[in-house]
Design brief:
This is Carbohydrate ABC transporter substrate-binding protein. The chain is α/β, with parallel strands linked by helices. It contains 18 helices and 17 strands.
């Protein structure tokens, strides 16, 4: 858990840093609004992540919190959630808007409900100090302008057990590998020993061939379907290559199937408790040489831990999957407190906050400010700022009945299973996926239109 600092401690630390930077108390006081209206999903979570900082910057400002919990109810469709967010903003008129998912951010930006931050960013010069991948994600709007700023991001690392690599005389992984290169490296462990007790080269908990195929495809910027056009996009050369890469490695023994023993609840649902989760973690137990996990994972393993950046796409060899910037701060379009809100956002991506964050656990993400890599003692952090997110254009999830997803992914899993059992060729599999997937998508869109 993050080692929380009290408000008094943070005020002292930040005040000292502000004075060292040449900012006087008078200048800071002049910027303080009497009241700031803040909209976020959960009040406790907001104050845990931002409250101390906001009170440090504007100690005399009254915060009026507006709950957006109803607008973020994941039991309803995305279309309904977006509608509720729009109504909340129009009715409550918040100054600072905190968004916890990128889809809602893009919808509100495209609807003109958020302020373009370009003028503020140019004035402060902050853009040059922010992770370029974060800025790219912020600009993925209809007009390619930033309407919010993610103060933190999350990214993965390829972790490896250096002791196993040394023991088997296998080259260590390195930055810039594609998925095919990673899996070829993993196969060398399979080739080195046929024993059932021998370590495997790569393992991902609760991940089967479908999940791995989606992970590889995500790195390549591929989608199985485009809801905004109503088209399934599986029968392509790019997807053929993805499935061939994954399925060929399942067939040659690179992976070893393992499913932890689950428990059954009173309603018949199978679930996995902490004991099952631990038993499934072959990497931490020293039985797998490589795995992918978010930055900061695997701090207590009993072997020499190494890490490099995760696999990159084959076309540019520079972009990786699992790179997200979902915690976005935005200014409501038309807010009279826009300058003050930007002052807080600017502060949240400053060297000051990056320095303080370097002394804490990164429960909420890694600071978007590039200088964090210099402040932290974790050498692996520097590599995070060399990663760029995979390019996957935003899709429109409105106008689709949610029953589509379960049926679609069940079909994909079954077709993969039949192919691994040599009941059909990869070519036939892709054709069947395309045809069945399109039928399911058409039916889901028709069902939604009847509502």
């Amino acid at each position: 858990m993050m080692r929380r600092w009290g408000i008094a401690t943070i005020v002292v630390v930040l005040s000292t840093l502000l004075m060292l930077s040449g900012c006087s108390d008078g200048e800071e006081q002049a910027k303080q609004p009497d009241v700031l209206k803040v909209a976020d999903v959960d009040e406790m979570n907001f104050y845990s992540m931002y409250g101390d900082y906001l009170n440090a910057v504007y100690p005399n400002t009254q915060i009026q919190f507006i709950s957006a919990n109803d607008a973020s109810d994941y039991r309803v469709s995305f279309e309904e959630r977006a509608k509720r967010w729009k109504q909340l903003i129009q009715n409550e008129q918040p100054d600072l808007i905190v968004l916890r998912d990128s889809e809602t951010y893009h919808v509100l930006a495209d609807e003109g409900l958020l302020s373009d931050l370009t003028p503020y960013m140019k004035s402060s010069g902050v853009a040059e100090q922010i992770h370029p991948g974060v800025l790219e994600l912020m600009n993925q709007n209809r007009d390619s302008l930033p309407y919010g700023m993610a103060t933190v991001f999350s990214a993965s690392k390829l972790y490896y057990n250096e002791d196993l690599f040394r023991e088997y005389g296998i080259d260590l992984p390195h930055d810039g590998m594609t998925w095919e290169e990673l899996l070829q490296l993993a196969y060398r462990f399979t080739a080195a020993s046929a024993s059932a007790d021998a370590p495997i080269g790569y393992y991902q908990s609760y991940s089967g061939p479908m999940e791995l195929s989606m992970q590889v495809a995500g790195t390549e910027g591929l989608s199985m379907y485009r809801l905004n056009t109503g088209k399934v996009t599986l029968d392509t050369t790019a997807w053929q290559q993805v499935f061939h890469t994954v399925l060929s490695h399942y067939k040659d023994g690179t992976f070893r199937s393992f499913t932890p023993e689950g428990k059954v609840s009173t309603d018949g649902t199978t679930y996995y408790d902490q004991e099952a989760t631990i038993s499934a973690d072959w990497f931490s137990k020293g039985r797998a040489a490589m795995t992918i996990g978010y930055y900061g994972s695997f701090s207590n393993v009993k072997f020499k831990l190494g890490s490099v950046n995760p696999p990159v796409d084959t076309s540019t060899r520079s972009r990786s999957g699992d790179f997200y910037a979902n915690h976005v701060l935005a200014v409501r379009a038309g807010s009279s407190k826009a300058q003050a809100v930007w002052g807080f956002i600017d502060f949240m991506v400053s060297d000051y906050v990056a320095k303080v964050s370097a002394q804490q656990a990164n429960d909420f993400g890694v600071p978007s400010r590039i200088s964090y890599g210099q402040f932290t003692k974790n050498e692996a952090a520097a590599g995070l700022y060399k990663q760029m997110p995979a390019i996957t254009p935003p899709d429109d999830r409105t106008g689709i009945d949610t029953s589509f997803y379960d049926g679609f992914y069940s079909m994909i899993k079954q077709e993969i299973s039949d192919t691994l059992a040599d009941k059909q060729s990869e070519e036939a599999m892709l054709k069947r996926m395309q045809e069945q997937g399109q039928q399911l998508l058409d039916a889901a869109k028709a069902k939604e239109q009847k509502k």
